[in-house]
Write a structure and sequence with these properties.
Layout (H helix, E strand, L loop, with lengths): L1 E4 L3 E7 L13 E7 L1 H12 L4 E7 L4 H9 L3 E7 L5 E7 L4 E5 L8 H17 L2 E5 L10 H11 L3 E5 L2 H8 L7 E2 L3 H8 L6 H13 L4 E5 L5 E4 L4 E5 L11 H15 L3 H16 L9 H10 L1 E5 L8
Parallel strand pairs: 1-4, 1-8, 2-6, 4-5, 8-9, 9-10, 10-11
Antiparallel strand pairs: 2-3, 6-7, 11-12, 12-13, 13-14
The structure holds adenosine-5'-diphosphate (ADP) and 1,6-di-O-phosphono-beta-D-fructofuranose.
Length: 318
């Protein structure tokens, strides 16, 4: 399978317990990790034992930690190198309050020449890969309908396509004629993309079901520590995570996408897919960077995920 990251990020996680805005704070620790949504999905799927190719646009000047990650996890590096440095993603974690604050920057601009090279790379990968994960924001220079057009192209070629993005790029996909097989917005991203407040779980379910009638096969709406709603045309599942000591929530959503793709590859039924995806997310937030814990720890987390199958007509309480 292949992941596409048009806007990777070198995530700088600063631990500053009890930090306050608008004042001077002391930090305890700093950690840099190669990230960005598709990179994280690739990293977690590789931990699970899946053969992964990672493509996209990567700044040539600070590619080292990405290359180290790809080598360590045997991820095939199909990134197009871009002049300049990949953006830094600033993540401030407060272990005392169990809070994570993200500051995501715009990223390196793409040029028509780079997009041409990327298109050729994607065509080559289409010939040899069946599953594609398109993940993360679009950098400057890429039109907001980029994913929408790519989803149509990949699905016309018979590929399984998963999408995790936000903002205008998500709006464009959700309004297009061809939807991805799997879409995983969080509740805020889905509200913003549809331009209306989805304030109850019933609102989220209704929105998800509309996307299913328009061609998606699985809509997973994640809701942070509340868990996630996973909806197919036949079934609706709510997966609630166990409470864990959170090191950083960065990568929680990417881990969920990775878990859902791993479940798809194994043909798991929806409740088992929900359990696996949630265990991947919870396992990831107990450590820095997008990495799965050892198998025994992951299995123990999976056993603690609360999965309930809802009737289509069930009204949920928030
Ligand atoms: N604080 C938390 N405690 C336990 N599980 C969490 C927490 N935050 C996120 N998760 C798990 O990670 C999943 C994805 O998280 P979410 O924050 O919704 O994704 P995203 O990173 O895309 O916004 C959730 O469905 C949940 O299972
Ligand atoms: O591409 P975007 O939307 O700007 O997000 C980039 C950020 O998302 C991450 O992939 C984490 O995503 P999630 O926490 O949503 O799983 C970071 O590694 C990266 O800094």
């Amino acid at each position: 399978m292949a992941t596409l990251t048009l806007n990777p990020a070198l995530d700088m996680t600063v631990r500053a317990d009890g930090w306050q805005p608008n004042t001077v704070n002391s930090g305890q620790d700093m950690h840099l990790s190669a990230g960005g949504k598709g990179v994280n999905v690739a990293s977690i799927l590789a931990d699970w034992g899946v053969t992964v190719t990672a493509t996209g646009l990567l700044g040539a000047e600070n590619a080292g930690s990405f290359e180290t990650l790809f080598r360590a996890k045997h991820i095939q590096d199909a990134f197009i190198r871009v002049p300049g440095s990949t953006r830094v993603g600033v993540k401030i974690v407060d272990h005392a309050k169990q809070e994570t604050t993200d500051i995501n920057l715009p990223g390196l601009g793409a040029t028509p020449e780079l997009l041409k090279a990327l298109e050729a790379q994607l065509d080559e990968l289409t010939a040899s890969h069946e599953v594609f994960v398109l993940a993360g924001s679009l950098p400057p220079g890429i039109e907001s309908n980029y994913y929408a057009r790519l989803v149509a192209k990949l699905r016309a070629a018979g590929k399984f396509v998963a999408l995790d993005t936000s903002g205008p790029a998500l709006t464009a996909v959700l309004n297009a004629d061809t939807l991805p097989n799997l879409v995983k917005p969080n509740n805020h991203e889905l509200s913003a993309a549809l331009g209306r407040e989805l304030s109850s779980e019933q609102d989220l379910l209704d929105a998800a079901r509309t996307l299913l009638t328009r061609g998606a096969d699985l809509v997973a709406v994640s809701q942070g520590e509340e868990g996630a709603l996973l909806v197919t045309r036949d079934e609706t599942v709510k997966a609630r995570p166990p409470r864990v000591p959170v090191v950083s929530t960065v990568g929680a959503g990417d881990a969920m996408v990775a878990g859902l793709v791993a479940a798809h590859l194994d043909g798991l039924p929806l409740p088992a897919a929900a359990r696996r995806a949630t265990s991947f997310s919870v396992g990831t937030i107990t450590r820095l960077g997008a990495h799965l814990p050892p198998r025994a720890e992951l299995d123990a987390i999976a056993a603690q995920v609360d999965v309930s199958v809802l009737k289509t007509s069930d009204r949920l309480t928030v």
